[in-house]
Design brief:
The complex is a heterodimer. Chain A has 19 helices and 10 strands. By secondary structure, chain A is of the alpha+beta class. In chain A, strand 9 and strand 10 (593-601) form a beta hairpin. In chain A, strands 2, 3, 4, 5, 6 and 7 form a 6-stranded antiparallel sheet that branches. A 4-stranded antiparallel sheet of chain A has the order 1-10-9-8. Chain A is 64% helix and 12% strand. Chain B is of the alpha/beta class. In chain B, 37% of the residues lie in helices and 18% in strands. In chain B, the strands form 2 sheets. A 5-stranded mixed sheet of chain B has the order 5-4-3-6-7. Classes of the chains: A alpha+beta, B alpha/beta. Chain A binds chain B through residues 272, 276, 280, 290, 294, 296, 298, 305, 307, 310-311, 314, 317-318, 321-322, 325-326, 328-329, 332-333, 335, 369, 372-373, 375-376, 381, and chain B through 1, 3, 6-7, 9-10, 13-14, 16-17, 19-24, 27-30.
């Protein structure tokens, strides 16, 4: 019954979405658009999808093996958390989660958006319904999550053990919330292009959604990167894998949008460009979903390849993005650009930021799809790997990071204070860092060396906007910007340190043997068998020391029974100045064990930087929302007093 | 804004969609093909692995008659099924030479006694060196080689019963 309730709720929601979409045309044709009926439909639609998703969670929590999806992706012996998380650890469930978040976001806009005109809101809700409609059709026609099996089997086939990890419980939902937050920006842009009301009011309505989505994408990418780092056991934090790129591209577009939207909100300029970015940001999310779900690019993220689903998703992508681009081509000419600005001004700084981010986005996009194009045209097979991305995106990112220090110091419209003087100290620190790297490591590669220089400079330069006045009096939004830019510097230093100073040791060791990696002496004590709820493993006991004190690490090589899979559970120990990363592999015929050891100085700064960037976003969000909440509060007080 | 700029995104989108449709329609071929197709085999001289079987050198492959060169091993499970198909090919007049990869004489003797022996010559490739030189990435794999020692066709994976006519036609073309 539970599964059937879910399916019925999904059908009803789809019907309401169709109604909502049709309503948009009726309303926009009239002279006065009334948003009230649209608001009610959007809220009902959101509630129904949430019911459908709740039903899916229940069948997974109860391990109801008569539901095909549960049978294929769960097993009764799994820990409870992973049973529930299994609901979105598969294609159908994750698509249902996607559409649930999409419809819930639509409901949220309908309930709380007061900033745009009624007409634009109606148009935006219509666009949001059109988006949802396609994904309902996809679920109901091509990937029904509630399909039954008869007779019901006794136990399921299990979940990919790599995904039995706390990371799974949060990583996809975070990224999806981010992707779908961008859908609201997309719908608002489409709505505003339809009604022609592209103005600073629209930018203010769009900003919290872009900011929220950007925070979640930042967290999702940072968490995903750490997950790949410790779970895959390869010791890297970013592989330029197509699926990683699929999450990076919307982030780059959202970062650009986040900056250009401020120009639109504050100055009424960059109208067409901002609308284009809003469309592109969500389009990149859809491209990402398509690349991941169709399995057309070879990737470590192995999802089942299904041409029918791929075709369906591609059709949705073509319709939505094509419609938005056509609308842009048709209505873009009517957009009047706002107030002009001088060559050296906050606006032009943000334009440069946008251009650089767009170029990086283009580089990643081309690199990800290039093998496909080459094979389509010439039949030649090739792959584009880290060397290309690092060599092309790396220098661009460094230039961008250098400019991050300058942009916030510029005034709106025209150059205000003399900025060269303010940047003297940071520039000096950067040069000192460069000289130090030349002295202590003359053979260092050029990119990490420049990374140290720019990172050190930016550490100092990023906090300058706070020093201009009393830091405690500075607006929260300024604090947010400073923390995020500081986070970029921190992450940059982490990447440079990891690239320049990592030591690696791959060896076969017998119990008692001592291996050296970086400053560490690592002794293999013994290798013992051990077992968990649905796995068995061999566990190595390693004693590591550098001078004084001994730390114990216990990496495992695990064998999961259903489905039969081997994974390596790395053991990582974090110190203030780096991480010791150990992996145990297969036994050697000579009686030893394969061990892989890394000493990675300051590698944790990469994720700390990512977290700081997201924290900065959260501070900015709080800074924007706080005055609104306060105003509501005081308005309510005022009303209470009046009627008391 | 000029019309060209306004329409640029949609044109780019169309290009990307066309490429993606193409990829969906023609699924990727993930096999790694040898770059030596159409070229002579690299020179090699492999020692014999069994006392009753002559060794294999690259000169043995250029004797004027097309041949099938089979890369296999006694430890390779799909090879067990393939040997029976090779036997059928041999019965139809195909000359088959083998390269045994990382194999031991006792194991190989056992393998041939159990499953049949279609091979004219067998060379022992202890370190997979010749296999790698040929551009083969796994076992079993087979090459159709013409009378001048030139590789005409590479078959990746076991030759299944339904591949027999394909192999025969490739050998016919190599004449």
């Amino acid at each position: 019954m539970i599964a059937e309730t879910g399916l019925a709720a999904l059908w009803l929601a789809a019907g309401l979405a169709a109604l909502q979409f049709l309503f948009m045309f009726v309303e926009l044709r009239g002279s006065v658009a009334l948003a009230r009926p649209m608001r009610s439909i959007a809220v009902a639609q959101g509630l129904l999808t949430m019911i459908a998703f709740a039903m899916l969670l229940i069948v997974f929590a109860r391990s109801d093996m008569s539901v095909k999806l549960v049978f294929e992706n769960s097993s009764a012996v799994k820990p409870f958390v992973y049973k529930v998380a299994g609901a979105w650890g598969n294609h159908e469930g994750s698509m249902l989660m996607w559409v649930t978040i999409l419809a819930a976001a639509g409901a949220f806009v309908a309930l709380f958006s007061r900033r745009t005109s009624e007409r634009t809101l109606v148009a935006a809700l219509g666009a949001q319904a059109a988006l949802a409609l396609g994904f309902y059709a996809f679920l109901l026609i091509a990937s029904n999550p509630f399909a039954r099996l008869w007779p019901a089997p006794m136990d399921g086939q299990g979940l990919n053990p790599l995904l039995q990890d706390p990371g799974l419980a949060f990583h996809p939902p975070t990224l999806y919330l981010g992707y779908v937050g961008l859908s609201v920006a997309f719908s608002l842009a489409v709505g505003a292009l339809l009604t022609g009301e592209v103005d600073s009011r629209l930018a203010r309505a769009m900003r919290p959604w872009v900011l929220g989505a950007w925070i979640l994408l930042t967290l999702g990418i940072t968490a995903g990167s750490y997950w790949a780092y410790y779970e895959l056991g390869w010791g890297g934090y970013w592989f330029w894998d197509p699926v990683e790129n699929a999450s990076l591209m919307p982030w780059l577009a959202a970062t650009a949008l986040l900056h250009s939207i401020n120009v639109l909100a504050a100055r009424g300029a960059l109208k067409a460009w901002t609308m284009m970015l809003a469309v592109i940001a969500f389009s990149m999310s859809m491209v990402g979903t398509f690349l991941v779900r169709s399995g057309i690019l070879t990737s470590v993220h192995a999802f089942a390849i299904d041409p029918q689903r791929g075709t369906f998703l591609l059709a949705l992508l073509a319709i939505y993005v094509g419609a938005a681009f056509l609308l842009f081509a048709w209505r873009g000419a009517t957009l009047k650009e706002g107030a002009p600005f001088e060559l050296v001004s906050r606006e032009s700084g943000l334009v440069v930021n946008n251009l650089l981010l767009s170029v990086v986005l283009g580089v990643v996009f081309v690199g990800t799809l290039y093998p496909l194009f080459v094979e389509a045209v010439s039949g030649e097979k090739l792959s584009v790997g880290a060397p290309y991305f690092n060599a092309v995106a790396g220098p661009l990112a460094l230039v961008l990071a250098a400019l991050v220090g300058i942009g916030p110091l510029l005034a709106w419209r025209r150059k205000g204070r003399p900025i060269v003087k303010q940047l003297q100290v940071p520039a000096l620190l950067g040069i000192v860092a460069l000289v130090i790297t030349i002295i202590i490591s003359p053979a260092m590669h050029i990119l990490p060396r420049l990374g140290f220089m720019v990172g050190t400079y930016l550490l100092a330069a990023s906090i300058l906007p706070l020093l201009r006045r009393n830091p405690l009096r500075a607006p929260l939004a300024t604090w947010g910007m400073v923390v995020a830019h500081f986070g970029i510097a921190v992450a940059l230093l982490g990447m440079a340190a990891n690239a320049a100073f990592t030591s690696e040791r791959l060896a076969v060791a017998r119990p008692g043997e001592i291996l050296t990696v970086g400053p560490w002496q690592v002794q293999l004590q013994e290798v013992t068998p051990t077992a968990g709820k649905n796995w068995t493993a061999v566990e190595a006991e390693l004693h590591a020391s550098r001078g004084s004190g001994v730390v114990t690490l216990k990496p495992q090589s695990r064998y999961f029974t259903d489905p039969p899979t081997e994974t390596s559970e790395s053991a990582i120990r974090t110190f203030w100045n780096g991480q010791l990363y150990t992996v145990v592999g297969k036994p050697d015929p000579s009686g030893g064990w394969q061990l892989r050891l890394w000493w990675k100085p300051f590698v944790t700064l990469i994720w700390a930087g990512g977290a700081l960037i997201a924290l900065g976003g959260a501070l900015a969000m709080l800074g924007r929302l706080w005055p609104i909440l306060r105003r509501r509060e005081s308005a309510a007080d005022w009303r209470r007093q009046r009627y008391a | 804004m000029s019309r060209a700029i306004r329409f640029a995104p949609i044109i780019l989108l169309l290009l990307v969609i066309v490429a993606l449709v193409w990829r969906l329609a023609t699924p990727a071929d993930t096999d790694v093909h040898s770059t030596l197709r159409g070229k002579p085999t690299p020179a090699f001289a492999l020692p014999a692995i069994l006392p009753n079987k002559p060794p294999l050198t690259s000169a043995d492959l250029a004797t004027g008659q097309p041949r099938l060169l089979n890369i296999f091993a006694s430890w390779c499970v799909p090879c067990v099924g393939e040997v029976k198909v090779l036997q059928q090919l041999k019965n139809r007049g195909v000359i088959i030479d083998g390269i045994a990869v990382r194999d031991r004489p006792d194991d190989l003797m056992d393998f041939l006694a159990r499953n049949g022996d279609p091979y004219e010559r067998i060379g022992s490739d202890r370190q997979s060196q010749v296999q790698i030189d040929l551009g083969s990435s796994g076992v079993p794999e087979s090459f159709v080689i013409d009378g001048h020692g030139v590789i005409r066709y590479q078959h990746i994976g076991a030759i299944e019963p339904e591949d027999v006519s394909l192999i025969l036609s490739k050998l016919e073309q190599a004449k």
